[in-house]
Amino acid sequence: MDSLLDFRGKVAIITGAASGFGALLAKGLHERGAQLVLGDINLPGLDKASAEYGDKAVLLQCDVSKEEDCEALVKAALEKFGRLDIAVNNAGVGHEMLATHEQQGDIFDRQYEVNLKSVMIGMKHQIPAMFKEGGSILNVSSMAGIGGAPKLAPYAAVKHGVIGLTKTAAVEYAKQNIRVNAICPFFSPTNIGAGMLKEDGVEDMLVRGCPMKRYGTVQEMVNAMMLILSPGNSYMTGQAIAVDGAVSAI
């Protein structure tokens, strides 16, 4: 196995692991030797997605907006495997595309609870578990976290917040050898993204606005996530990595 992608002996938490980035990342880390603690609010979907992992994985129903559920994932890692090396705060939700003046407060509240507060309370419990050995945390932001996102103001606001949390934690815990990074994918057809494609003209707009003239696959995003998490990538921290087909280069 290539040492850059050798995760043998590593224990990883992944939220939102029943589908999309989370499910595919869990598969990739499992194939490369990692032991897993997988959380998702959709427990039947999680069980189906991880049926082949056996005693290499712990599955927990997890509502990431609840602190006790985020804490339970860390406790499970320590009780089952004795350590925590990697945490991927991936769970998230989208919302209907509406102009800013049409947005409702309950939309923002939901975005804050699931897409931003969850990252804060997740790291609150993940970081102390890494004090002894160090570790790597990856927060899933978005291109909407580093630029404007028309008709997605609440989503853009909280994804910008994810990057703020990421950079702050990276500085605070660098001396403990805890790396904290964010990935900022361009559009990719996960469960969240698929809903956007139902809007008239959105797919054409996305493709037209990307220099590569296509949006990214889920696998391409997960490949980047594994490289960011790689134990060999030991000097990268505090970064918001755009994986975007050169959209951010324009």
UniProtKB/TrEMBL annotation:
InterPro entries: NAD(P)-bd_dom_sf (IPR036291), SDR_fam (IPR002347). Keywords: Oxidoreductase. CDD domains: SDR_c. One of its GO terms (molecular function) is quinone binding. SUPFAM superfamilies: NAD(P)-binding Rossmann-fold domains. One of its GO terms (biological process) is fatty acid biosynthetic process. It comes from the Bacteria. It holds the Pfam family adh_short_C2. Belongs to the short-chain dehydrogenases/reductases (SDR) family. This is NAD(P)-dependent dehydrogenase (Short-subunit alcohol dehydrogenase family). It comes from Pseudoteredinibacter isoporae.
